[in-house]
Amino acid sequence: MFEIQPFGGIIYGADYNPEQWPRDTWRDDARLMNEAGVNLVSLGIFSWAHLEPRPGEYDFTWLDEVMDLLHEHGINVNLATATASPPPWLSLKYPDSRPVTADGVRLEVGARQLYCPSHQPFRAHARLLVEQIAQRYGPHPALKLWHINNEYGCHVDQCFCALCAEAFRAWLQAKYQTLDALNDAWGTAFWSQRYGDWAEIQPPRRAPTFANPTQQLDWRRFSSDNILELYRMEAGVVRAVTPHIPVTTNFLGFIPGLDYFKWAQEEDVVSLDAYPDPAGPHPHLEAGMSYDMMRSLRGGQRWILMEQAPSAVNWRPYNAPKRPGLMRMLNHQALAHGASGLMFFQWRASRAGAEKFHSGMVQHVGPARSRVWEEIRSLGQELRTLTRLTGAQVPARAAIMFDWNSWWALNVDSKPAVLPLLPLVQKWYAALRSLGQNVDFVHPDGDLQGYDLVVMPNQYLLAQGSAQNIRQFVDGGGTLVTGFFSGIVDEHEHIQLGGYPALLTDVLGLWVEEWVVLPPGEHNRVRFGAQGEAHDVLHWAEVIHPEGAETLATFDQDFIAGQPAVTRHGYGAGRAYYVGGDLPQAALAQVFEEALTHAGVPTCRLPDTVSVSVSRLGGRSVLHLLNAHPTQALAFTLPAGGVHFEDGRPAAPSLTLLPYGVTLIEFEGEVALDELQLTQAPAALTLSH
Ligand SMILES: [Zn+2]
């Protein structure tokens, strides 16, 4: 397994694009990188046109010089394979290398990521370039990591051209072997879609109405696999030359195009580009969910935050800056969630090009008079006191089930309602985080045994093997919370008959007869107990028939008034809860708190503006406490017996954190999370921006 230690501490750096700047800037860059504490830069990500200005004509002189210069300054290199943006000559020489949309539009030259993954001459040119780079720089002492391509699937995650259609047919033949098997899986008896020849099968291009759902689902699987072939090709080239250098490609968190559970198995270390909206309600929750997915993809292995903005980005309609302290807080949060590297896009903010208004570690104003630079330099110094964290684990007793296959299936046309999955997962995630839990993401076929609680919001697609995995988990003593509209279809997107969710009705002690979709403007309500608090339910409610399950909350409106909304059922040595509607976060937290407490997991109750994580260093624990409130100071009562992580000073029993403030308290053994309390924020310390 890839270890972070060769870097001698926490990785700190950026994408470095020296080809955008005159040579006399480079030496200044290296000096400033030393000043900031930069120890790794990503180099050459968009350099294809500079490295191969004409077909087969390579020019490495500038890159030789930069590699040597960085090495002289003790800065390591994460060297890119430079294939992320083919040069104009390639796209013009091979017009059919340009990808095609579902509407049949072939994309044009002048932006980036302009390639069809099935185009063989593109693949051949890319391979030749990567071979040249690997052979030339494989022996270079600055090389410490390979960066394959860049943000695969960011702009083009599907290509509907004739070449991809051919590759899709080959993928389907390998999967189904016979046309009968495909016709059965795709349900082609409906709408006269039966295929009599493989050549008749097409990608789900723009059609008169809904394309076949299983065709759409298989197309998503194929498209992720087809792009993964490109990654495999390049990773294979560099691994053959430098088997000792780890390989990564930068992921984008929760993007719809690529099944990262599958992709991550092909990497040595996972890396992430995270751009939470600073103007959003809770940037730390948005970022934290991606951070936790990255840690989960390779079984808890520490990962690298490969890109983040030092301040503003340039690609939203309105791009808020990261106000003083937010950048530092989000980096502390990444460390708390398992990162061992903190890198930015990009080193120097560009003068020209599409991202010139994207912030850089060195802003347009230059370092001397820059607030961002001061924060960057200060963080670089602070990281030296946090090196021990690179050896920490982030143990989670609660996990959220997530599967790209289910997400794809849910997004296929013609459902009872439009159900965007990510906002729902974010809400369930926030509810668990508000109880002080570290949260993993786990695949339905993953190892559930290490968790006390597994929750599955809207796990629409559930294969037989996955259902069995869940049944064993509960039977063995685990606690499950299942959300509405889960376990509806199998891996071919065929309904599991006999009452929903057919494969788990015994575990849940109930069956669902039908659902009550609530269009915008309509709602139902749930009430926990006769005198309990009522919560609005939006979007979705269900008609639930208990068969052994106990009712915890009921709906109080419409024809389902008085009928179960939330239930609990003992199964084997475990427990299974069911949440039959889209409940607000507070109601979810109430269910999760009961489930966790029953499972013997300590909890605390915190607002969304506080982020708590716990990491483990051998027999010791580190409490990472962050105040994510932009203007309000917060005071806490701490568990007894802690010391400050950086210097071992005993921690006082109470603590005030300023807006975006961070503290790390270390404990012998476990952290008594139930002793952590938020006390009233002192009004005198309330700040405003
Ligand atoms: Zn194509």
Please explain how this structure is put together:
- A hairpin with a 5-residue loop joins strand 15 (524-528) and strand 16 (534-546).
- The protein has 689 residues and is α/β, with parallel strands linked by helices.
- The protein is built from 17 helices and 27 strands.
- It binds zinc ion.
- Zinc ion is lined by residues 99, 116, 118, 159, 161, 163-164.
Helix/strand/pairing category: alpha/beta
Radius of gyration: 26 Å
Give the termini distance in whole angstroms: 45 Å
Which spans of ≥5 residues are poorly predicted at pLDDT below 50? 684-689
| Main sheet overview | 11 strands, mixed
**Beta-strand percentage range:** 15-25%
| Number of distinct beta strands | 27
Discrete helix count: 17
What would the principal axes of the Cα set say about the shape?
globular
What is the residue-mean pLDDT, rounded to a whole number?
Answer: 96
A few lines on this structure:
The protein is an alpha/beta fold. Helices cover 29% and strands 20% of the residues.
Summary tags:
alpha/beta, eleven-stranded mixed beta sheet, nine-stranded parallel beta sheet
List the helices and strands and how they pair.
Blueprint: E1 11-16, H1 23-36, E2 40-43, H2 48-51, H3 61-72, E3 76-80, H4 88-93, H5 120-137, E4 143-147, H6 162-176, H7 179-186, H8 213-241, E5 247-248, E6 250-251, H9 260-264, E7 271-273, H10 283-297, E8 303-307, H11 326-336, E9 339-344, H12 371-383, E10 398-401, H13 404-411, H14 421-433, E11 439-442, E12 453-456, H15 464-475, E13 479-483, H16 505-508, E14 510-518, E15 524-528, E16 534-546, E17 550-555, E18 564-571, E19 574-579, E20 581-582, H17 585-598, E21 610-617, E22 620-627, E23 634-637, E24 643-644, E25 654-657, E26 662-668, E27 677-679
Parallel strand pairs: 1-2, 1-9, 2-3, 3-4, 4-5, 6-7, 7-8, 8-9, 10-11, 10-12, 12-13, 13-19
Antiparallel strand pairs: 14-16, 15-16, 15-17, 16-20, 17-18, 18-19, 21-22, 22-26, 23-25, 23-27, 24-26
The site of zinc ion (ZN) has 7 residues, from helix 6.
